[in-house]
Amino acid sequence: MTTFASGTDTLTRDALTVLQPGFTGTTAPDWLLRRLGEGLASVGLFGRNIASPEQVAALTAQLRVERDDVLVAIDEEGGDVTRLEVRTGSSFPGNHALGAVDDVELTREVAAELGRRLAACGVNLNWAPSADVNSNPANPVIGVRSFGADTALVARHTAAYVTGLQSAGVAACTKHFPGHGDTAVDSHHAMPRIDADASVLAERELAPFRAAIAAGSRAVMSAHILVPALDPDRPATLSRTVLTDLLRGELGYTGLIVTDGMEMQAIAATYGIERGSVLAIAAGADAICVGGGLSDDETVRRLRDALVAAVRAGELPETRLAEAAERVRELARWTARVAPEADGTGREEVGLVAARRALRLTAASPFTPLTGAPFVAAFTPVANIAVGDETPWGVAAELARLLPGTETGSYTGEDAARAALEAAGDRRVVAVVRDEHRHPWMAAALDTLLASRPDTVIVEMGVPQAPARGALHIATYGAARVCGRAAAEVIAGE
After folding, report:
1. Dist. CA 183–CA 203, nearest whole Å
2. C-alpha distances in angstroms, 205 versus 131, 201, 311?
3. With a threshold of 0.90, does the pTM exceed it?
4. How many whole angstroms separate alpha carbon 75 and alpha carbon 14?
5. C-alpha closest to that of 7 among 320, 299, 300, 305
6. CB within 8 A of 455, min separation 6: which ones?
7. Is there a contact between 224 and 260 (Cβ–Cβ < 8 Å)?
8. 197 catalytic, yes or no?
9. CA distance linking residue 224 with residue 262, whole number of Å
């Protein structure tokens, strides 16, 4: 092996450059600033790092004092997965609502306005959009994060989203390659597997990624999924066949390849984060995302040292690590070249407009809006890790604004309906659900509730797969704050 920088600062800097770590707190810790000085080129922001747009802007400015070309990344999909508005709910509906409207110009406008807000905070890389085709209705982790189950629809909206986001100077990171839609397992917890044959994958899973690449997506995120038709042995994140032969070779992609979070159990429990990171870079990944769960200097040191040791042992070509580091720097240069001036303009209400347009209403007879304060029964499933449980959802807060005196309760399990009826008393009931079709206890609760109170209004804020029922059934195609507001306006006749 030819050694260019064995044991020198160049090797260590390259190893740091390919990492995208997180941290705790709303200001940058000293260790992070020190690592930026040593070669770290990217930082990931999560909900725990965010208090307000002004605070995020101050935080990113603090990072840029240490390194002016730092990539500041965030997992801001809008809709159910929001970090910028983690404590209030998003001002933008998510992909499923945009797919329901199916207006690619609206999708582009939403992504552009979201990008403008991120750029104003100093964020220049967004781990979005999800280009997954949600072909499996039982999917526990994608669902409303997908534009839909139709490949052509997902492809055209993925391209529009990439175009809109990047028009604001924020790099898109299209995910989760080669497609996470046909899975029944959440890769945060275990290794999902897709058993579709290669022809199905080419026509269904890969089409949206082709569209994203054609639209100029600056980054693509790999999925921690096993796809035997592509590689029977290793998950996509660790597969040279998937990342280099397919994504780079067959699809002609030349931008940055980012891994999904390496601390997710699909990788961490099988390979460990150090070994997994080495294998990912060797397979063709350029940046290692870590920090959603592990967010300390020790993690950065461990991964840096693992990459350096792998090069010195001949397990990872130094040229491959150097190539990966250069792609990170190239993306940083792109964000510096295209970043627009933050002029404060944009369509502030475009998210609400989109949420209103996404609503689908089903009523057995003409619906009379409520005039009195109802009781909102939220039948609450366990949130997946990508969404998190710290972000509020539902319609209660918005209904309380329109119909003062509205009360609410959250229920789960076999006793949910009885408890909700007892709490509601003689008030009109609004039942809020999320993916009724995936939760038998939730469907049973609605059965019991409607048997006793057939005038119940039902709001489905997940994938509307179950049959519509109730005096009025509202499908919002997502649980963003603006989706709740749009539904509340219908219920109250606003």
Report:
1. 17
2. 8, 5, 34
3. yes
4. 24
5. 305
6. 428, 429, 471
7. yes
8. no
9. 9
CA 337, 338, 339, 343 torsion-angle sign: positive
Range with the lowest mean pLDDT among 70-84, 200-214, 383-397? Answer: 383-397
User: Residue 291, SS3?
Assistant: coil
Q: Which two tokens stand for residue 190?
A: 């275990």
CA neighbours closer than 13 Å in the CB half-sphere of residue 298: 2
**Does the pLDDT at position 1 exceed 60?**
no
Distance separating alpha carbons of residues 176 and 181, to the nearest angstrom:
9
DSSP state for residue 428 in the 8-state scheme: P
Q: Which helix (H) or strand (E) holds 33?
A: helix 30-38
Name the 3-class secondary structure at 458.
strand
Is 260 a catalytic site residue?
yes
- With a cut of 90, say whether residue 185 has pLDDT above it: no
Nearest to 381 by CA among 282, 462, 487: 462
Catalytic residue, from 96, 157, 180, 188: name it.
188
Q: Where are the beta strands (DSSP E) in 324-440?
A: 360-362, 375-379, 407-411, 429-433
Neighbours of 244 (CB within 10 A): 16
Asked if 33 contacts 66 with a C-beta cutoff of 8 angstroms, the reply is yes
Residue from 182, 186, 260, 435 carrying the catalytic annotation: 260
CB-neighbour burial class of residue 31 (10 A; exposed 0-12, middle 13-18, buried 19+): middle
Cβ-based neighbours of 209, under 8 Å, separated by 6 or more = 131, 158, 174, 177, 178, 179, 220, 247, 251
The residue whose two tokens read 């199905």 is 200
CA 449 to each of CA 50, 248, 260, 419, 430: distance values in angstroms, whole numbers, following the listed order: 39, 53, 41, 10, 10
Residues 117, 162 contacting (CB under 8 angstroms): no
